[in-house]
Specification:
Elements (H helix, E strand, L loop, with lengths): L2 E5 L13 H7 L6 H11 L3 E5 L5 H7 L2 E5 L11 H7 L6 E4 L16 H11 L5 E3 L2 H9 L5 E3 L25 E4 L8 H5 L3 H12 L2 E3 L4 H7 L10 H11 L4 H11 E2 L4 H7 L5 E4 L2 H8 L5 E5 L2 H10 L3 E3 L7 H9 L3 H21 L8
Parallel strand pairs: 1-2, 1-3, 3-4, 5-6, 7-8, 7-10, 8-9, 10-11, 11-12
Helix pairs in contact: 4-5
Pfam families: PS_pyruv_trans
InterPro entries: Polysacch_pyruvyl_Trfase
Protein name: Polysaccharide pyruvyl transferase domain-containing protein
Length: 370
C-alpha cells in the first residue's frame, strides 16, 4: 500500500503541566492557526501516513516513503529562510507535494524579497511534483517570477475541512456582546505595535472595553496566562506597560484578570470547534480563526490586512472587507456580520473543493472522502 509522509507539526498538543512554555509555543509553530491546515491535510490524504519531522533523513525517506506531503503557510516571506530544508529536499528522489503555500506582503507590491534558501526550497519541490498548491493568484504570480510555473490556486486546505457537522448560516441577527474577537499579534515586546494605531490594536481595545471574549492564537504573553506550563515569560514593568497600552487598560491587575477570564486559546481543533457554540459570531483579522468558525457553522467576518489574507478572502469569497481606513465600533462589527453574504462562501467552497481534489489526484495522492 502507498505510504505517505506528512511534514508537519503535531495535530494536537496534549496538556502537560511540566512542559516549558517555549516548548509548547514551538509545538504549535507559534500560532494555533497552524493546527487547522495541519489537521485538514492529515484528514484529506488517504492511505498509510506517518508524521515526518523537519530534521528528516533524506536517505531514509527515499527508502521508506512513496511521497512526502507538506502542509504550508505564508512561507514566501522576506523573514523566512528555508536553506536548511532546501538542503534536505534537494536530496530527495521521491515526489514532494506542497499544499497551501502563500506569500507574505503588506500590500500587492509584487516585490517580495524571497531569500535564496526559500527559493531553492520551492524549486526543489517544483521539480519533484506535478504542481504546487498556492493560496491565491498573488502567490502564483510571485512563484512565477521565481521561475516556478507548475502551480495550482487552491486556497488553504483548511477551507475544505469540516471541523464538525453543521448547517451553513443564512442571514443572521446577532447579539453584539456574544461575539468572539480575534486580532493579530506576536510578542507584545515590539513597541510600535503598542504605540501606533492599527486595526489590530483597535480589536484588542474593543474586546477589552466591551468585556468580550478574545481568541489567542499567537500572542505568547496572553497564552502563557491561559495555560499550564513551566518557565513562562516574565512580566516586568516594561512588558506590563506595553500590554496596558495595547488594550488601553487602566492597570495591570485589571488587564490580567480580563485575559484569564475571557481569553480563549485552543490546542486541538475539536475542542476549538465545540467552544464556538457559545458565540453568535466571530470577528477579526485572523484567517484561521475565521475559517474555523465558518467551517463549524458559525457566522464570521474578517478584515483582511495584507496579501496573505486578502488573496484567500477573494479566492474563497470569505465575508470580509479591507481593514485599511476602518475605524471600528461594536455597532459596525455587528453590522458587518448581519449584512454578510455567507451563501457565496459556501457555494464557492464546493466549486473550489473539486479543483482541490483534482490537484491531489494530479499529484498521484489518494484522497479521503471529504
Amino acid at each position: 500500500m502507498t505510504r505517505y509522509g506528512i511534514l508537519s507539526i503535531v495535530q494536537k498538543v496534549p496538556v502537560a503541566r511540566k512542559r516549558p512554555f517555549t516548548t509548547l509555543y514551538q509545538m504549535i509553530g507559534k500560532n494555533t492557526g497552524n493546527l487547522l491546515f495541519t489537521n485538514a491535510v492529515w484528514n484529506q490524504i488517504g492511505g498509510n501516513k506517518e508524521r515526518v519531522s523537519f530534521t528528516f533523513s533524506p536517505e531514509l525517506l527515499n527508502e521508506t516513503l512513496d511521497a512526502l506531503v507538506i502542509p504550508a503557510a505564508n512561507w514566501l516571506s522576506p523573514f523566512v529562510d528555508f536553506s536548511t530544508l532546501a538542503d534536505l529536499f534537494e536530496q530527495l528522489t521521491i515526489p514532494t507535494i506542497l499544499i497551501g503555500i502563500g506569500a507574505q506582503d503588506d500590500s500587492y507590491s509584487g516585490a517580495v524579497a524571497i531569500p535564496e534558501g526559500t527559493q531553492r526550497f520551492v524549486k526543489a519541490i517544483s521539480e519533484r511534483s506535478e504542481s504546487i498548491s498556492v493560496r491565491g493568484q498573488y502567490t502564483q504570480e510571485i512563484l512565477s517570477s521565481l521561475g516556478v510555473q507548475n502551480t495550482t490556486v487552491t486556497g488553504c486546505p483548511s477551507l475544505y475541512h469540516d471541523f464538525r457537522p453543521f448547517f451553513p448560516p443564512g442571514p443572521v441577527k446577532v447579539r453584539q456582546s456574544k461575539g468572539l474577537i480575534h486580532s493579530t499579534r506576536y510578542s507584545a515586546t515590539y513597541e510600535p505595535f503598542a504605540n501606533e494605531e492599527s486595526i489590530h490594536r483597535q480589536l484588542f481595545r474593543i474586546a477589552f472595553q466591551e468585556g468580550m471574549d478574545i481568541l489567542i492564537q499567537s500572542e505568547p504573553e496572553e497564552m502563557s496566562l491561559l495555560v499550564q506550563a513551566t518557565e513562562k515569560p516574565a512580566f516586568d514593568a516594561g512588558l506590563k506597560a506595553l500590554l496596558k497600552q495595547i488594550y488601553d487598560a487602566p492597570d495591570w491587575p485589571t488587564l490580567k484578570a480580563y485575559i484569564r477570564e475571557q481569553g480563549r486559546t485552543f490546542f486541538d481543533v475539536d475542542t476549538w470547534a465545540r467552544a464556538l457554540d457559545s458565540y453568535d459570531y466571530v470577528f477579526g483579522t485572523r484567517l484561521h480563526g475565521t475559517i474555523m468558525a465558518l467551517n463549524s457553522g458559525v457566522p464570521a467576518y474578517m478584515l483582511h490586512h495584507d496579501s496573505r489574507t486578502r488573496e484567500i478572502c477573494e479566492f474563497a469569497a470569505i465575508p470580509s472587507s479591507a481593514a485599511r481606513g476602518i475605524q471600528l465600533t461594536p455597532r459596525k462589527m455587528k453590522g458587518f456580520v448581519e449584512n454578510a453574504d455567507f451563501g457565496s462562501y459556501y457555494s464557492k467552497r464546493e466549486t473550489n473543493k473539486l479543483n482541490y481534489k483534482a490537484f491531489l489526484a494530479r499529484n498521484g495522492l489518494v484522497a479521503s472522502d471529504f
